[in-house]
Amino acid sequence: MSATAPSICPRCAHERLTHLTTSPVAGAWDVFQCDRCLYTWRTTEPARRTQPDAYPAAFRLTAEDIENAIEMPAVPPLRA
Amino acid sequence: MAYDDLRSFLATLEEEGQLLRITEQVRPEPDIAAAANAAGRIGENAPALWFDNVHGFTDARIAMNVHGSWANHALALGLPKNTAVKEQVAEFARRWDAFPVAPVRREDAPWRENTMDGEGIDLFELLPLFRLNDGDGGFYLDKAAVVSRDPQDPENFGKQNVGVYRIEVIGKDRLAFQPVPMHDIAQHLRMAEEKGEDLPVAITLGNDPVMPIVAGMPMAYDQSEYEMAGALRGEPMPLATAPATGLDVPRGSEVVIEGYFESRTRQIEGPFGEFTGNYSGGRRMPVVKVTRISYRTAPIFESLYLGMPWTECDYLVGPNTCVPLLKQLKAEFPEVQAVNAMYTHGLLVIISTKKRYGGFAKAVGMRAMTTPHGLGYVAQVILVDEDVDPFNLPQVMWALSSKVNPKDDVMIMPNLPVVELAPAASPAGIISKMIIDATTPVDPDRRGNFATPVKDLPETQEWIAKLQKLIAER
């Protein structure tokens, strides 16, 4: 894993992240995922996709957004 | 002869000067998506793009914009690359009449060469995944032909569906999947979930160039996309049996991902920059657990960029949306001459038609809205006379500007269904729909002053040919 491992999700600021994969060429990049909002990013992407301060406000998510997200499609009722 | 896989089509694109190899090293993001985005901004005959020198990867082969121009779309159908759009649509409609053409089973599929299963499954290891647009929640598979069966009628070949859906890779062996309620796979999933059962699925990547065209085509629920592929190819579609699910998949696929929808499971997905030119997302969507991946040696990863039109997506779902609507309308109204449904997968449609009697064109417009595809898409219809080419937008604008009396020719109907992704819908899934009748009123609809139209001179056709010849000979 590269030395610049992120500490929070750029999109929802959650602190628990999963390291999904690392570059086949050693040290080139890593891919992380937020455990809460599932945002997935490569460490070499532009700051607007990787840095919480630069992440666009329009795409940020809060815990409430995730909690209240609607189902699409809704889970249907079970049939006997 | 038809193409049986992506590789043979890419070879033809290269021979025809329609494949550009990017040899310099590129970054996975934002370069690959930005280049494919740019391909849609440099004219109607942009090439496909090939990347194999991508920072951090040792073995990436990525094809973008394969259908992303009229030249490439023509070549995909085996037509000369300079075939006009209207002629491509007309040839597509002619081949449609050969439907159904039964597929041929050839089990020696090259994707049987390699397998990942169990703990060894890792989509990130196999595929050079990357983000497309800034606001996308992750890395997507957006050009796969996805196969599922009707759980209540699994032996029915026609009800086996092949479609294109947005699929987010949310883990080494997990995918978030969007089945729009209007689409067939949503019906399969609903039936399975009502019984509390998982739904098997096969996701095929990197196919022959007709497969994405038929997978993205709005067809009737019990019509087989493979039998339509045979009609468009002019020869049977080669299929093989996917090993884990038994689903019928293209023999020529680069990668076959198998698994199942986890019954009654939803997980946060997106957003994703959509074909509407807007993002949608932040919703909880079904989840696929991957159980087996079969793949050709040195697989090619094919993806497409989509966003504000025009992009590859618009070429891919242009003609294949026009033709089903044309066929469904002509079945009842032979007066219909041509349908241009190339705008946002048919959210807006332009129809040229003869008039049986006054008010007829408006009725054709209403019928377009109640075709199977129209229910979820056709929100605006422009009707033009039979001598107006609906693919010629200056002619269409002439018809609108000269034939329409808004108080009589614009009809707005409230609260009709539309695909939830339609950005103007309110609430999502509900929209008002509009018919603009830009045809000439005919008896007994006696309105306007159209008795003496100026027609092209009888000698004009002859002079068109003469001018073209003289220009060519200069």
From TrEMBL, chain B:
<keyword id="KW-0058">Aromatic hydrocarbons catabolism</keyword>
<protein>
    <recommendedName>
        <fullName>Phenolic acid decarboxylase</fullName>
        <ecNumber>4.1.1.-</ecNumber>
    </recommendedName>
</protein>
<comment type="function">
    <text>Involved in the non-oxidative decarboxylation and detoxification of phenolic derivatives.</text>
</comment>
<dbReference type="GO" id="GO:0005829">
    <property type="term" value="C:cytosol"/>
</dbReference>
<feature type="binding site">
    <location>
        <position position="161"/>
    </location>
    <ligand>
        <name>Mn(2+)</name>
    </ligand>
</feature>
<keyword id="KW-0288">FMN</keyword>
<dbReference type="GO" id="GO:0046872">
    <property type="term" value="F:metal ion binding"/>
</dbReference>
<feature type="binding site">
    <location>
        <position position="183"/>
    </location>
    <ligand>
        <name>Mn(2+)</name>
    </ligand>
</feature>
<feature type="active site" description="Proton donor">
    <location>
        <position position="274"/>
    </location>
</feature>
<dbReference type="GO" id="GO:0008694">
    <property type="term" value="F:4-hydroxy-3-polyprenylbenzoate decarboxylase activity"/>
</dbReference>
<keyword id="KW-0285">Flavoprotein</keyword>
<dbReference type="InterPro" id="IPR032902">
    <property type="entry name" value="BsdC"/>
</dbReference>
<dbReference type="GO" id="GO:0009636">
    <property type="term" value="P:response to toxic substance"/>
</dbReference>
<keyword id="KW-0456">Lyase</keyword>
<dbReference type="InterPro" id="IPR049383">
    <property type="entry name" value="UbiD-like_N"/>
</dbReference>
<dbReference type="Pfam" id="PF20696">
    <property type="entry name" value="UbiD_C"/>
</dbReference>
<dbReference type="GO" id="GO:0006744">
    <property type="term" value="P:ubiquinone biosynthetic process"/>
</dbReference>
<keyword id="KW-0464">Manganese</keyword>
<dbReference type="InterPro" id="IPR002830">
    <property type="entry name" value="UbiD"/>
</dbReference>
<dbReference type="Pfam" id="PF01977">
    <property type="entry name" value="UbiD"/>
</dbReference>
<feature type="domain" description="3-octaprenyl-4-hydroxybenzoate carboxy-lyase-like C-terminal">
    <location>
        <begin position="315"/>
        <end position="438"/>
    </location>
</feature>
<feature type="binding site">
    <location>
        <position position="225"/>
    </location>
    <ligand>
        <name>Mn(2+)</name>
    </ligand>
</feature>
<comment type="similarity">
    <text>Belongs to the UbiD family. YclC subfamily.</text>
</comment>
<keyword id="KW-0210">Decarboxylase</keyword>
<dbReference type="InterPro" id="IPR048304">
    <property type="entry name" value="UbiD_Rift_dom"/>
</dbReference>
<feature type="binding site">
    <location>
        <begin position="161"/>
        <end position="166"/>
    </location>
    <ligand>
        <name>prenylated FMN</name>
    </ligand>
</feature>
<dbReference type="InterPro" id="IPR053417">
    <property type="entry name" value="PAD_UbiD-like"/>
</dbReference>
<keyword id="KW-0216">Detoxification</keyword>
<feature type="binding site">
    <location>
        <begin position="182"/>
        <end position="183"/>
    </location>
    <ligand>
        <name>prenylated FMN</name>
    </ligand>
</feature>
<feature type="domain" description="3-octaprenyl-4-hydroxybenzoate carboxy-lyase-like Rift-related">
    <location>
        <begin position="104"/>
        <end position="309"/>
    </location>
</feature>
<feature type="domain" description="3-octaprenyl-4-hydroxybenzoate carboxy-lyase-like N-terminal">
    <location>
        <begin position="10"/>
        <end position="90"/>
    </location>
</feature>
<keyword id="KW-0479">Metal-binding</keyword>
<dbReference type="Pfam" id="PF20695">
    <property type="entry name" value="UbiD_N"/>
</dbReference>
<dbReference type="InterPro" id="IPR049381">
    <property type="entry name" value="UbiD-like_C"/>
</dbReference>
